[in-house]
Amino acid sequence: MNSKYIDLPDNLRLHYLERTIRNPDYTLLFLHGLSSSSYLWVPLVKEFESDKSDIYCLDLRGHGLTDKPEGNYSLETLANDVLNFIKKKNLKNIIMIGQSMGGDLGVSICQKVNERIVGCIGIDGGAINLKENFESKKVALEKLRPPDLDGMDKNVMLTRLRKNWPDWSEDAIMGQFSIFSVNKDNKITKRLSLINHLKILESLWENDSISNLKNIKVPLLLILVKYNTDLTFIKDSNVRIDIERVNGDHDIHAQKPKLVHKIIEKRINGEIFEKK
Predict the structure, then answer these.
(1) Pairing of strands 2-8, 12-19
(2) Count of domains forming the chain
(3) Is residue 191 domain-resident?
(4) What are the strands, taking DSSP E only, across 40-150?
(5) Using one digit for the tens of pLDDT, what is the confidence trace for 200-229?
(6) First-to-last C-alpha distance (Å) of the chain
(7) Is there a domain that residue 190 lies in?
């Protein structure tokens, strides 16, 4: 995949990975989770090598190699960045694929009719309901506050990642490691600052995932691992919503890319997403 940058409104320089082909059937637009990056999609994207789709993996505002401006980090702001990217690149027949927070971001975007978007996929995301799992926003922010890893030696962190996820490929390990920058002394710093991380968590607290799912305007596939939100209401949805429950890590796309690809490919080949 090619690493590229694009200048968007609000003086945002956004980094993304791109693979394009001639006459694609679809455009697959990948949105990573909170504090992750475009590079964690690499193991899954490799499984799409022979598929007839253009592929874009974004580094969202504040993440990865994208700019990290001060100010608003609400889901609405992140969604506007994605929509600006879509418009500037003139993308069509888009299937949005988001993991964790990226899934909720995709679902929120798909609440409104957009002729460019034909489907949405949430990978252990799209149905995050923090208010269902924590008694208050304060408790949620305390429990979900990321550990302070800044200043750790690069090789110590890589050893820890390989120990924590022994069944992950080296591509997946390096994708996870890409959330850090490394200085000349081999010390790491998280690319997403703590203050911006907490801003996004606050926005996720306010996000009404159930309402978003009820109002989604395109077919949706949810691949769920950790989340057990009651989704019985989907039987009354005006659009097709499929749910696949699988065993594995929250980052199932990094751990089991072949499985995730098989599930997604089945829906694409089954034509639940209608091209325009």
Answers:
(1) antiparallel
(2) 1
(3) no
(4) 53-58, 94-99, 117-123
(5) 999 999 998 888 888 899 999 999 997 667
(6) 26
(7) no
Residue 9's Cβ-count burial label (10 Å; 0-12, 13-18, 19+) is exposed
Q: What is the domain extent for residue 230?
A: 2-133+207-269
Tell me the two tokens of residue 171.
Answer: 């591509």
Nearest to 90 by CA among 13, 4, 6, 1: 6
CATH of the domain at 22: 3.40.50.1820
Distances, alpha carbon 164 to alpha carbons 160, 242, 249, in Å: 6, 31, 11
Instruction: Give a yes or no: residue 181 inside a domain.
Output: no
Give CA–CA dist 102/33, Å, rounded.
Answer: 5
Tokens of 202: 């606050």
**In whole angstroms, how far apart are CA 93 and each of 21, 27, 29, 237?**
14, 6, 10, 22
Q: What tokens does 101 get?
A: 């927070």
Q: Please give the DSSP secondary-structure letter assigned to residue 53.
A: E
194-206 and 101-109 helices, crossing angle to 10°: 50
Q: Is 65 helix (H, G, I), strand (E, B) or coil?
A: coil
Which candidate, 243, 240, 233, places its Cα nearest to that of 217?
240
Measure the CA–CA gap between 49 and 51, rounded to whole angstroms: 6
Q: DSSP E strands: which ranges in 135-245?
A: 180-182, 188-190, 220-224, 241-245
As separate numbers, helices (DSSP H) first and strands (DSSP E) second, the chain gives 11, 10
Instruction: Note whether residue 188 is domain-resident.
Output: no
Task: Locate 163 and state its tokens.
Answer: 């120990």
Q: Summarize pLDDT for 219-262 with one digit per residue, the tens.
A: 999 999 976 677 777 777 888 889 999 999 999 999 999 999 99
